[in-house]
Amino acid sequence: MGTLCSSAETPDATAADFRLLFYKVFARKEARIYFNEKTTNMKTETLGTIARKLVAPGKGILAADESSGTIEKRLKSINVPSNEENRRMYREILFTTKGAGEFISGVILFDETIRQKTRDGRSFVEVLEQQGIVPGIKVDKGAKAMANFPGEKITEGLDGLRERLTEYRKLGARFAKWRAVITIGEGIPTRTCIDSNAEALARYAALCQEADLVPIVEPEVLMDGTHTIERYFEVTQQTLESVFHALYEHRVVLEGMLLKPNMVLSGKDCPQQASVEEVAEATVRCLKRVVPAAVPGIVFLSGGQSDQQATEHLNAMNRLNQVPWQLSFSFGRALQAPVLKAWKGDPARVADAQQAFHHRGSGEHRLLACRSRQLAETG
Ligand code: 13P
Question: Which of 53, 155, 186, 328 has the fewest CB atoms below 10 angstroms from its CB?
Answer without folding.
Answer: 186
